[in-house]
Amino acid sequence: MTKRGSLSADTTAQGTCRGGRRLPLAAALAAGTLAAAATPAAGAVPGGGTTYFPRPQVTKVSCLRGCASHRRAQAGSTLKLTGYALGQSRQVVFLGSYGRSDDVSVPVWPGSDVRIQVRVPMGAVSGPIAVETAAGLRSRRTRRVTILPPPPPAPNPTLTPVPGPREPGAPVIETGTSRTRAYYGARRAVVFSYRVDSGSARSLEVQLIRAGNGTAVKTWTQPPPIPGQVQSIVWSGGLGTGPAPPGRYSFRVTAQGTNGAIARSASTQDYQRDAFDLYDDIFPVRGRHGFGGSGSRFGAARVGHRHQGQDVPARCGTRLVAARGGRVRWRAYQSAAGNYLVIDAAGTNVDYVYMHLAEPSPFMAGDRVYTGQRIGAVGATGDATGCHLHFELWRGRWYHGGRPFDPLPALLAWDRYS
Asked: What is the model's pLDDT at position 151?
């Protein structure tokens, strides 16, 4: 009987010979052909014959720590993989559900031939798991493992002592982060604050860590902090000249005292401390809404043309916001579109189009608009039946060489998180 939170898999261990012939592990042992698994040879064995490479096998997957309800895994959880010939494993592959595009690999250093512990990385989705050796041998896939999204970051808008590793005599650090959810192009950026409470720090560095792979995407080298003084860093969601990829990020401080002792605010594997989720768009209708029937969809038949957007029915007067900030290209009234607004979305080659606004938008061509900023209200102006937002996405400029594409998948995605 499989315990809740555990996963049974094929228990038949196999190996691969250098010459390409496969043998059951038991048969290989009986024949005396199994070489030391910890030292796979690169060629023929002196005196003739071949070196045997055991193929790893995973028989059970269970969640140990940081689990969701019912012992289900989530990003940040620690899993235990049990099986055979795991001592040479070098990575665990979370195979996802949609081909290779959502595969995520994590390096491991197993201390046992029968079990491995691995932390579920950000970006891993439900699907089978496999382990792979340095020699390129991969285990059979396990059954599907359910992986939930990570819980929202824990808010800490006020300065609190850090939980990170601290050497004796190192500075004492407090940190705080203004928000746990941010949008690229929004007026309100993420503010990270810190204070060195005691000890003298001769150097201090702040890094922005992307949780998906644990890499530092941005670094601020700060002057030696004044003890007790609060200092802040503001980040608006950009890297270089464009937006940072959506996902979870966190701030990490490293302070070195005059005696050389080092304190860190948290480990790079901490997905909660001073963390926030960055999004690139927000759902534009800020109230109860629907998506209509087939006639509301992109490509639906109209008199003399096809529908070039998605209708989002909502009560008249419901607040409309910019799904993504940028510059206003056009604001006008047209007999079919009614009051409409076109925004060149920042960091993209896409125009966002909003039609049937109840009143003309207060913004005019050339104005800067921020993500989430109010641009008007749902209406029924122009050729409209009932109050709704007609929303379009165009690659390239709207009616100036660009082409519309179906906005429904994007709208559904934005609706799920915002």
From this structure: 83
